[in-house]
Design brief:
By secondary structure, this protein is of the alpha/beta class. It has 11 helices and 14 strands. It has an 8-stranded parallel β-sheet with strand order 5-6-7-8-9-10-11-12. A 3-stranded antiparallel β-sheet has the order 1-2-3. A 3-stranded antiparallel β-sheet has the order 4-14-13, with no helix packed on it. A hairpin with a 2-residue loop joins strand 1 and strand 2. The two termini are 13 Å apart. GO terms for molecular function: magnesium ion binding; racemase and epimerase activity, acting on amino acids and derivatives. Its cofactor is Mg(2+). Pfam families: MR_MLE_C, MR_MLE_N.
Length: 333
């Protein structure tokens, strides 16, 4: 890591990005993406990180801003990523600060993120899923038809009527790979009812079918489609609880509390035999950029957040269809 300046400062701000249309999941809908940006400045060099406070995890914009501000003095005194793991809990606030410190280290050393993070080689482009927002059968069919050339579609589901939704999407996007996300909106009965039919429709993953606090009910349930843990998977401390219930873990920086913990969770999950998915919250390219680092070599990538925004950062990540290219230094890393 680069030497720490005695003049290092941490600042935080709130930003809002309008969404194209409305983004719906089983828990509700939104028309704006509210994010918090942390900046760490050292000798005129600035590192940035972006997070999304998530009410599902008891977070708010105000609360996350307060958490970030609470470590300002420690950051000024030279706190780095390792100490940050103990100073803040897993979550959005730590993510923004952690990613800002990674970005700052790259800019101070002049090294790309793959070298600073001690990865095996330069970052490669990744193929992202494209999300179809929860809607009526007819509207999801139309959305699938408009996106039928994309290789991987992720469908937001809710429970009753989901089989009709998936059938309609499959009819209108016959060649696309499909994954579905219930966002905790199902019961075991839904899972048993839909499992065989979804397998027949070539669905490759069912993400978080049951509420996180109730997913012990998955023990002993045989489903022909692999199950993925999202709301049930946060950091390494939650990994052991997923054994025997899930085959895939969805790692998100806002859950792990930054890239530092996310890279360690990824390694431990792979060692434990889980397949890896890298996901995102609805946010700008600044939040996705460290996700591209995490997504190197994984099975499934869902970093389409900026594609839902009416405007993104400039510069932002480069998207060509389904392909996401590594971030340029002007953005992050």
């Amino acid at each position: 890591m680069a030497a720490v300046s005695a003049k290092r400062t941490l600042t935080v701000r709130r930003e809002v990005f309008p969404i194209q249309g409305t983004f719906r999941i089983s828990r509700g809908a939104k028309t704006e993406a509210h994010v918090v940006v942390a900046e760490v400045e050292d000798g005129g060099v600035v590192g940035r990180g972006e997070c999304v406070p998530y009410a599902r995890y008891g977070e708010s914009i105000d609360g996350v801003v307060e958490q970030i501000e609470s470590v300002a003095a420690a950051i000024g005194a030279g706190m780095e990523q390792e100490e940050l793991l103990s100073a803040l809990p897993p979550g959005a606030a730590r993510n923004a600060v952690d990613c800002a410190l990674w970005d700052l280290a790259c800019k101070l050393t002049g090294q790309p993120i793959w070298e600073v993070a001690d990865l095996d080689g330069p970052l490669e482009p990744v193929v992202t899923a494209y999300t179809l927002s929860l809607d009526t059968v007819e509207n999801m069919a139309a959305a699938a038809k408009a996106s039928s050339r994309r290789p991987l579609l992720k469908l937001k589901l809710t429970g009753d009527g989901d089989l009709e939704r998936v059938r309609a999407v499959r009819e209108n996007a016959p060649d696309a790979r499909l994954i579905v996300d219930a966002n905790e909106g199902w019961t075991v009965e839904h899972l048993k009812r839909f499992g065989d039919a979804f397998a027949g429709l070539k669905v490759e993953l069912i993400e978080q079918p049951l509420p996180a606090g109730q997913d012990d009910a998955l023990f002993g349930v045989e489903c022909p489609v692999p199950l993925g843990a999202d709301e049930s998977c946060h950091d390494r401390g939650t990994l052991d609880e997923l054994r025997g219930k899930y085959q895939v873990v969805n790692i998100k920086l806002d859950k792990t509390g930054g890239l530092t913990e996310a890279l360690r969770l990824k390694s431990d999950a792979e060692d434990a035999g889980f397949r890896i998915m890298v996901g995102c919250m609805l946010a700008s390219s600044l939040a996705m950029a460290p996700g591209v680092v995490l997504a190197q070599g994984v099975d499934l990538v869902d970093l389409d957040g900026p594609l839902w925004l009416a405007r993104d950062r400039v510069p932002g990540l480069k998207y060509e269809g389904e392909t996401v290219f590594p971030p340029e230094a002007a953005l992050w890393g």
